[in-house]
Amino acid sequence: MTLPNLHQQTPLFENVEINTRLQQRVYLKMDCFQPIGSFKIRGIGLRCQEAVQSGITHLISSSGGNAGLAAAYAGRRLGAQVTVVVPETTSPTAQRRIAAEGAEVIVHGSVWDEANRFALQLVDELDGAYVHPFDHPTIWLGHATMIDELVGQCSKPEVMVVSVGGGGLLCGLLEGLHRHEWTDVPVLAVETEGAASLAASLKSGRLETLPAITSIAATLGARQVTPQVLAWSKRHLLSSVVVSDQDAVKACLQFADDLRVVVEPACGAALSLIYDNHRHLAGYESVLMIVCGGAGVTIQQLLAWHEQFQK
User: Fold this and answer.
1) Domain boundaries 12-39+137-310, corresponding CATH code
2) For the purposes of burial, counting CB atoms within 10 Å of the CB of 2, is it exposed (0-12), middle (13-18) or buried (19 or more)?
3) DSSP 3-state assignment of 160?
4) What is the pLDDT of residue 120?
5) What are the pLDDT digits (tens) for 140-175?
6) Stretch(es) of the chain classified as CATH 3.40.50.1100
7) CA end-to-end span of the chain, whole Å?
8) At the N or C end, where does the chain have fewer CB atoms within 10 A?
9) What pLDDT is attached to residue 1?
10) How far is CA 282 from CA 22, 158, 274, 304, 305, in A?
C-alpha cells in the first residue's frame, strides 16, 4: 500500500528586525506552516501511517488540541476512522477544527491525563489503535525529520530553543541532533508556569507529576513528561526555562506583528525568549528557534488574554 506523505518541508526564516533588536542571528524554523498548523503532523502522521499499514481502520487519540488535529487530518488522508478525546480545557476552536477533519470529538476530563485514560479505555471497545500524542518512538522519529531538513537549511546553530509539553517534540529533535552529529548544540526547553512538569523533573532528577495544570497554554498541559526526556538529559546539555503566561501571549502578539503569523501560547513560550526573556540567549551568536505553531487559538483570544493580564 502506497500512503501519502502527510507532512511538508517547512521554511527557515530570518527576520531583520528580530536580528537587529537582539544583535544575534535567529533562525526561525516555521513548522507553524504544516498543513494542520503545527509540528504534530510529523510524528503523529508517521504513527498513523504505521498503524494503517498494519491493517488498522480506526485510530483513537487523546489530545489537548494539536495532536488530535494531526490524527484527524492523518486519518482523513489515510481513509481511517478517527476518535479524539480532548479535555475540557481544549479550546472550541481546536475542537471545531478536529471535527472538521471528520473525526469524532469526545470531551472528557478537566486535564489531558483524564482524557488520555478514557481514550485508552476506548481502544478495545472500538477495535482500533491508540495514537499517543507524544510518548512513542515512531512519533519521535517523525519529529526528528525537522533536523533532517535543518541541516540543509542552515549552519549548525549555537543553541536551540523549543517549547515543551509532554516532551515528544524535544525527544525527536534530540534524536535528530545526534543523528546528524550536532551533539554539542545545547537546548533550552521552555515551559509556562503552571505547566512546568519538565522543570520539576529536571530539578529532582526523577519523573515528577504536577498536581494540576494551571497555565492557559493548554497544549503544554501534560502533568508528566515522557521518561525519555530524563534519559536524554543524561546524554545532552538540556536546560529548563520557565516563563509566564503573560510573556507567552505577548510573544504571540509580537510575532504576529513581525511575521504576520498567529501561533498558540504554547509556541509563544519559546518565542518569549526573543522578546521578553532574551537574557537566556546571552552569549550566543546564532539561535535556532523552533516555531512549533498551534491551531487552537485566534487573534481575538490572544487579545482577550492580553487585556486580562493588564488588569
Assistant:
1) 3.40.50.1100
2) exposed
3) strand
4) 94
5) 999 999 999 999 999 999 999 999 999 999 999 999
6) 12-39+137-310, 40-131
7) 57
8) C
9) 61
10) 9, 11, 11, 32, 29
